[in-house]
Design brief:
Number of helices: 4
Order of helices and strands: HEEEHHH
Oligomer: single chain
Structural class: mainly alpha
Shape: elongated
Length: about 200
């Protein structure tokens, strides 16, 4: 007869931690899962105006019953405002700024990692740095500058996207106003008559 296996305190503790982790993951997934499916419910009355909405957790630009991707790197905004040259130029500039953000951010992170590694290995046990310390510090500083520049590119892209939407909607509103029938001018009322004074009496 095989000896019975007894549960040790360590195995019980390990099982308890796994169960707690699974329960926590289930709770977090249940709470955050609907966020990925969120969609806008309000519908703009004037469908000719460009608006940004959420569809299944993804930003989109909606205009005239059509939807365009609203993710910064997709170029969907430029397609949505293509009929207005000023807005299209702003949208394309925003896309270019996001490309610059991605390049400077990734390049900056890589430079920070390389510079930090070179600086770390250039410090021997006695604490006296060797020739790689200067190069590592320079690369590290350049990486930090790149990360800082990437933040500027990202904020500039957001400002350009906002300007593109505003320029498109202004053009649409100007066109709609031009299509309105001219309102006839209301004739102004004549000034009230001032009674003339008669001849002065004796």
């Amino acid at each position: 007869m095989a000896p019975s296996r007894r549960a040790t305190p360590n195995s019980s503790l390990s099982w308890s931690r796994r169960a707690q982790a699974q329960i926590l993951a289930l709770c977090v997934g249940t709470a955050l899962g609907p966020l990925g499916c969120a969609s806008s419910t309000y519908r703009v009355r004037n469908r000719e105006l460009l608006v940004q909405q959420m569809h299944m957790g993804t930003p989109v630009y909606a205009v005239e019953g059509r939807s365009y991707s609203g993710t910064p790197m997709s170029g969907g905004l430029a397609a949505a405002v293509a009929t207005v040259p000023e807005a299209r130029e702003l949208a394309e500039a925003a896309h270019d700024s996001m490309v610059a953000f991605l390049l400077t951010y990734v390049g900056g992170l890589v430079a920070v990692g390389v510079g930090a590694g070179m600086t770390a290995i250039s410090m021997p046990a006695n604490g006296a740095p060797n020739g790689m310390a200067g190069a590592g510090t320079t690369i590290l500083g350049a990486g930090l500058v790149g990360v800082g520049a990437s933040i500027w590119f990202a904020t500039r892209a957001e400002a350009l996207r906002t300007d593109a939407v505003a320029a498109y909607n202004d053009a649409v509103l100007d066109r709609l106003r031009a299509q309105l029938p001219a309102t006839p001018a209301t004739p102004s009322a004549p000034p009230p008559a001032i009674p003339s004074e008669g001849p002065a009496g004796d």
